[in-house]
Design brief:
The complex is a heterodimer.
Chain A: H1 14-45, H2 62-95, E1 103-109, E2 112-117, E3 130-133, E4 135-139, E5 144-150, E6 155-159, E7 164-168, E8 174-178, E9 184-190, E10 202-208, H3 210-220, H4 227-234
Parallel strand pairs in A: 1-5, 4-10
Antiparallel strand pairs in A: 1-2, 2-3, 5-8, 6-7, 6-9, 9-10
Chain B: H1 6-47, H2 67-79, H3 89-98, H4 104-116, H5 131-145, H6 165-177, H7 187-197, H8 202-215
The chains are: A alpha+beta, B mainly alpha.
Chain lengths: 235, 217
């Protein structure tokens, strides 16, 4: 809710990631307010006018130690909730790989993104592949695998509306997945310092309905098929 | 007090105005040059402090190129006419850099500064080229780029001297394969495509570049 007010959640796992973030946020907020509250209460209660001079204590007495031990145990219990929620999300997003026959190739280089979309045959490395710089086109509610590469240095494929971030490492092919759930045009950015042009290494993701996506594929078919259809639509 | 005639008065006003304009234009030029120098700091990260180029960064020498050509190429990068093909690795680096130049004034200022840098003669890095054969092949190039590679602005043909040879080779290859010059926005680049096609193979490209490199000396 907090993050979604600022950045839409446009992938199937975005809300799960937001939930973990907010769980951490509310735990931290609770302990912060409580500890600061107690701290200021003691400052006021034991202020110089009402109290004798402070003395040094070693903190070894049981009644003194409990001020550390009890909150410590409580924080550890909170951590258990956070770890369980985080591991579940991590497994779903990064380790599980739901099957699909749709794959897009994401090539990062200084300082541009090159996206290879499968054409109408749905397969990569065929003659109808659609290659675009700084434009990724996907169909809403369809599960995609992405195949992430780097041509030169470390980059990071970051799609804020998906809550997705994945490093791209030269020499490695990194696989991942996403299911877009919201149509629209959103940002893609590089989230790893990659040289002087890093700040301008942005791209756009276009999440389209089935009809929009088919129309886009028809217009951009490198084989030239459907060009007549595309030109008629443009009139 | 001595009275002056009308013509003498007009003459004095004109001289005063001229002097003021001269001072103003010099100040404006100095400011533009300072702005260009400031902007060039970004370029120098890849192109070198003197615009001498750095092969490792795929950045060619740019020092002392013609102002009109520098401006034209910066506009092409900025407007997406160049550097948008997915195989143009160096061009894709240059495109975001050109987008730093938010205004036409900035673009002109940095182009002016680069044009004012002393031209650099680079060492040859391509081996196996025959400059004598290259001279014959250059016959086609010279109709636009000039007999001495000096360039011809009315034909949008930049000078070919003081370039790094690996850059010339990459660009000829890019024109041949459509990596450059096939974008509908790049109308002047499109003219170079059939010219590059005339160089039948790698040897012919090496030969003509070997000849062009002799023109820089």
């Amino acid at each position: 809710m907090l993050i979604e007010a600022l950045v839409p959640a446009a992938s199937s796992y975005a809300k799960d990631i937001d939930f973990v973030w907010e769980l951490v946020f509310w735990f931290v907020a609770f302990w912060f307010i409580l500890s600061e509250g107690i701290f200021f209460y003691f400052i006021m209660k034991f202020r110089k006018k009402n109290s004798p001079k402070a003395e040094y204590i070693s903190g070894e007495e049981k009644h003194q130690k409990k001020w550390i031990t009890y909150p410590h145990i409580a924080v550890l219990i909170c951590d258990v909730f956070i770890v369980v929620a985080a591991v579940k999300v991590w497994y779903d997003v990064k380790q599980d790989m739901p099957p699909t026959d749709r794959t897009v190739r994401v090539m990062s280089s200084q300082w541009a993104w090159t996206f290879t979309h499968p054409g109408p045959d749905g397969k990569l490395d065929t003659a109808d592949d659609i290659i675009k710089n700084d434009e990724l086109h996907v169909e809403v509610d369809q599960l995609y695998h992405y195949e992430l590469h780097s041509r030169d240095v470390l980059h990071d494929f970051s799609v804020p509306v998906f809550r997705l971030k994945q490093d791209a490492i030269p020499g490695r092919t990194i696989m991942g997945w996403f299911t877009p759930t919201l149509t629209g045009e959103f940002d893609i950015q590089c989230a790893e310092i990659c040289g002087i042009g890093h700040g301008l290494m942005g791209a756009r993701i276009f999440i389209e309905s089935k009809e929009q996506h088919e129309s886009w594929m028809a217009k951009n078919n490198p084989r030239g098929e459907n060009l007549l259809l595309a030109s008629n639509e443009g009139r | 007090m001595k009275r002056i005639g009308l013509w003498q008065y007009v003459l004095r006003v004109l001289c005063g105005t001229g002097l003021a304009l001269l001072v103003f234009s010099n100040t404006a030029n100095a400011e533009e040059n300072e702005r260009g120098k400031q902007l060039f700091e970004m370029c120098s990260q890849c192109h070198g402090l003197q615009g001498e180029g750095m092969a490792l960064s795929l950045a060619p020498s740019i020092a002392g190129l013609e102002l009109w050509s520098l401006e034209a190429q910066l506009r092409k990068f900025r407007d997406g006419a160049r550097g948008v093909h997915h195989e143009d690795i160096a061009g894709m680096r240059m495109r975001p850099m050109s987008m730093w130049l938010k205004t036409d004034e900035d673009l002109v200022a940095v182009a002016n500064y680069v044009a004012s840098l002393p031209a650099v003669t680079s060492e040859a890095t391509i081996e196996g080229g025959d400059a004598t054969k290259g001279k014959a092949l250059y016959g086609l190039c010279q109709s636009c780029h000039g007999a001495n590679g000096e360039g011809l602005q009315p034909l949008n043909a930049p000078k070919l001297t003081n370039h790094t040879d690996w850059y010339l080779k990459t660009q000829i290859y890019n024109f041949k394969t459509g990596i450059r010059g096939s974008n509908p926005k790049d109308t002047t680049g499109a003219l170079m495509r059939p010219m590059a096609m005339a160089l039948a193979n790698d040897q012919a490209i090496n030969d003509v570049i070997s000849y062009i490199m002799t023109l820089s000396k």
